[in-house]
Hints:
By secondary structure, the protein is of the alpha/beta class. The chain has ten helices and 17 strands. Helices cover 30% and strands 25% of the residues. β15 and β16 (283-287) form a beta hairpin.
Amino acid sequence: MTDELRVGVIGLGSVFEPYAESMRRLRAEGRIRVVRTCDVNPERSDAGERLLAEPAPFSTDYSDVISDPRVEAVVILTSMPAHGRITLEALRAGKHVLVEKPMSVEMAGAEAIMEETEKRDSVLMCAPGVVLSPTFQAIWKRVIHQGEIGRIHLARGRYGWSGPDWGQWFYRPGGGPVFDLAVYNITALTGWLGPVRRVTAMAGIAHPRRVVDGEEIEVEVYDNYQILLDFGDAAFGVVTTGFTMERYRSPALELYGSEGTIQMLGDDWAPEGYEMWTNDLGAWAVYEEIDPRWDWTGPLEHLLDVVGGATQLIQPRHAFHVLEIMLAADRAAATGATQDLVSTFDPIAFDVDSIYLSGVAPVHDRRIIRTEEHLREAEG
């Protein structure tokens, strides 16, 4: 394999544009080259060249990407119901894979993916990449590694919006706000607190009919949720999600401990710093966003790093556990019965010494690259 990873992209819809921005940057750094693109919609045939500023052969059949011997890694940005089967086929072809969330929409498909992953040397990178954000890692270091707010008793996550008016699949089986939105909060909370033991939920269809792609459709899946997570030892978390939120002004994530509270500001996929109360200090301390340039397409660069030998922080077993939680939430809502979970995952192998707790070095434009020297000076 050359130093420049040759990539095929499957899915050129709305998610592709932010990924394309990252791909252009990584291409300029000599780390990646997109050699094939694919989308089921032939009208997107020019999206690759238009957004990547370089031509790449286009197909409407994803198998053309997977079978191309030039393609070393496949980036899967399709509708969620297609993730599982494409991921499995790409792994069987010996490719590295980055798949957008979720890895699959059903457990049998995810189990097949895990089985294939564990018998191959290929890297499987499952979005979302919230655990990569410097702010997520700073909170982990303070709360989990250093224990600055004591023992965690309660946690809360929130992410939602009014829902897409494109893509009717969002409102059919395999869609919905848990797979699309709550996956971020659940990944983040479990990344801090570890595996969940039990799940219960209340859910319903708040908007039975919606206009999507210019057509009025019937909503077939829950669009409004409250999910309760039992982490064991009397530690509980709640995730509020839905295609039912017009706006919000509140922290994305909150952890309540025996000696204080910590809150991530903004969204967990787009943090805006954090604030922390400790009983010892008796006041709120506010920390600016550590690296304003970090964005949610980070798993792409992490894939390149891991292929090059770096420690993988986004573990497939973690994504598998998150999928079990999401499916259990639906069963709990449908049956009224709390669901026991069986999967687990290992703690994330962060390099503690590389994690900065603050990032207040002056910068007036987030496009300016923050160097390691800036961050060291900020922590002083």
